[in-house]
Amino acid sequence: KVGLRVWVSSSLSLSLSLSLSLSLSLSLSIRYGLVWICTTLVFVLSSLGNCATYLVKKRTDSEAPWVFDVNYINLAASLIYGYAIIVPVAFYFSLRYMGSRADLLRFWCLWGYSLFIFVPTTLPLLIPVEFLRWVIILLAGGASSCFVALNLRSYLEASNDLTAVVAAAFGLQMVLSIFVKVWFFP
């Protein structure tokens, strides 16, 4: 009996410590998503945005020289990191003011992961058909907006607060997607 109790207790403590360390490492790795997704998006926007301007330039005037625009990197980094840091902070303080149980770290993760859809979306934006580009970026912006809006609903208790906050989040995501299209994929 004693051997069985020792074996069960050691198995439970090993299982508990493994699950605790696994959940701790998972929660830490989830927090890195903000950094990795934003960094990938900055790289993809700056490189594929330059590629898109090259394709449009060669399509319209094949004799004109094309120049690589290094400022795309600065603009993409400022836009994406600024958006992913400042917007969640603003929503955090707004929701805390409204009496919600908002968590800033979760908001940073939420907005960071909402930007993921723009990473694969930038590849079809290389197609030099303007109508198709607008459809693609608006669909990506809509998906990203819905992701943020649906996840924000869990932080809102009153229905009157829900409409304004969700509409603001939806609108900001759509403005970001339109800015990405207009600036990086003209």
Automatic annotation (TrEMBL):
One GO molecular-function entry: small GTPase binding
Subcellular location: Golgi apparatus membrane; Membrane
Any one Gene Ontology BP term: vesicle-mediated transport
Membrane topology: Multi-pass membrane protein
Annotated TM spans: 6-26, 33-55, 75-95, 107-125, 131-150, 162-184
Domain Yip1 per the UniProt entry, residue ranges: 32-178
Pfam families on file: Yip1 (PF04893)
Keywords: Membrane, Transmembrane, Transmembrane helix
GO CC annotations on file: Golgi membrane
Family: Belongs to the YIP1 family.
UniProt name for this protein: Protein YIP
Gene field: LOC130503982
